[in-house]
Amino acid sequence: MTFPNGFLWGASTAAHQVEGNNVSSDWWLREHGHAPSPSPIESPSGDAADSYHRYPEDMRMLADAGLTSYRFSIEWARIEPEKGCVSLAQLDHYRRMVDTARDLGLTPMVTLHHFTNPAWFAREVGWHSPRAVDLFGRFTETALPVLTDVELVCTINEPNMVAIMANSEERDAFLSGGLPSGHPVVTENLIGAHRVSSSILRSAGKQAGWSVATQAYQAEPGFEGAAAEHGRSREDVFLDAAAGDDWIGIQAYTRTKIGADGPVPIPAGAERTLTGWEYYPGALEFGIRRSWERNGVPVYVTENGIATADDARRIDYTAGALEGVERALADGIDVRGYLHWSALDNYEWGSFRPTFGLIGWDPETFERSPKPSLAWLGGVARRNALR
Ligand code: IFM
Fold first, then answer.
1. Is pLDDT above 60 for 164?
2. Total structural domains within the chain
3. What is the pTM of this model?
4. Best probe residue, ligand 1, of 111, 157, 341 (max atoms within 8 Å of C-beta)
5. Is residue 155 part of a domain?
């Protein structure tokens, strides 16, 4: 089958994971021991992939391969490094990124918040405070000059993971493998911030949505109720909050089976990726269907991929995931694009070891090396068909 006309084919990144030297963010502080971290930090982000300076080359590689879209985030901590102090030069920087994408024929999808906060925000406010809602609204207004002629704006990336990470009472559960539930107050504030931000964006003529990390919570026979309960605060509340949005971003990597004691350990013989997750391309179809059933909102796949050193396996995984997208489309689900995670190998929140990229780079020279998977996905994009 061919994908619908105008289907977007792209790749995604997040500022902190590729830019380097995001020194005014809470994550930078955490990496350097100035703030508590929910999990051990193996290495700091440092220069990351230096995409702050090399973004034209990165985008050109995507466009030359045949992709038609690039999703990237703008960094609140650079734009507003101290409360109320807005950097016009940083706004200009991100504006140039949008222009570069457009000049290369890539439809930009811009994320306003991808995990990192300005250090002042984390210190003085944080997502536990209802003041976060207005401050995020104000940041959305500040960012509008970057977004002229950007249609697709993602307010908050994986708000469910933000709420989960905030649930420090259950931090031990997180460290031992299971994801804690979403913190209820943080969840409420994130939903509030998304609503305020979306309404500002819509008034400015944008299509607003947010992207949710789906975990394919699958019930072992007889544990359907437990699986539904498990998914509620970790996923469903965020999918439900998207009802009425212009679109939703679905992000999927693996699955979690739920049995008598909650998450079931991955079986000993199952293939695992470099993040330790089960290799499970079916996660994407599962996430798309779950979202569609709950909110009926058009879907963009805003992240999907695999941490592996074996690029052939990346192609297998992605082909498997796209077969699921084909089935979803055949059933009438309105899927409008597939943006792979990630354009580049990047900083995986504490370590550079899990390599998700279509493009690798030399840690000393930053020289880029496109992987065969980039040409492969570009071929899919040019055909607008998997095969
Ligand atoms: O790298 C992350 C990204 O920042 C958010 N979604 C999941 C990716 C892989 O863990």
1. yes
2. 1
3. 0.97
4. 341
5. yes
